């Protein structure tokens, strides 16, 4: 069963070690991540971000039993288990599958993760238009027509990273 855990970012490795001591090594942790590329002083700076901040998904068969979760409340790096995960399994699984489908070869989410909508504003995080805001005019399978100010252009969504504003 999947659970959602709030953790201390500085203590993530300690949390994983303590968790493996308590329940064994047959658990899965999933943390969806984004990478932003910014240009500063003619250099590309990569910044990694957890999509969910200080939350992660963790899977183990023992999480079906509340007693096991209560016994894990004092692990190093654990803040708390989010309540209501038992009733939300279908939604959690769908979200994780959607994230994994949108990952690139390095495990970072790409712009396909966002549901793109016409006439909505987005901001580039990579390429020559970094930090530029644009509006989507038309969506097609392999290209997007955008408007940057009065300039109309076409981009390939897999080439650039952008997020909704």
Structural notes for this entry:
By secondary structure, the chain is α+β, with helices and mostly antiparallel strands. The chain has 2 domains: 2-109, Alpha-Beta Plaits (2-Layer Sandwich); 115-164, Roll (SH3 type barrels). Helix content is 19%, strand content 35%. It contains 3 helices and 11 strands; from the N terminus they run E-H-E-E-E-E-H-E-H-E-E-E-E-E. It has a 5-stranded antiparallel beta sheet with strand order 10-9-8-7-11, with no helix packed on it. A 4-stranded antiparallel beta sheet has the order 2-5-1-6, covered by helices on one side. It has a two-stranded antiparallel ribbon with strand order 3-4. A hairpin with an 8-residue loop joins strand 7 and strand 8 (133-139). It is elongated, with a radius of gyration of 19 Å. The chain starts with a strand and ends with a strand. 14% of the residues are buried. The mean pLDDT is 85.
